[in-house]
Amino acid sequence: MKKKVLISNAIWGKDYCAIFTRYSLASLLAEGNIPKLATLATITFHIVTTKRDRRLLVKDPAILKLKRYCQIEWNLVDDFGILRPPVGEGGAKY
Question: What is the number of alpha carbons within 13 Å of residue 80 lying toward its C-beta?
Answer without folding.
Answer: 10
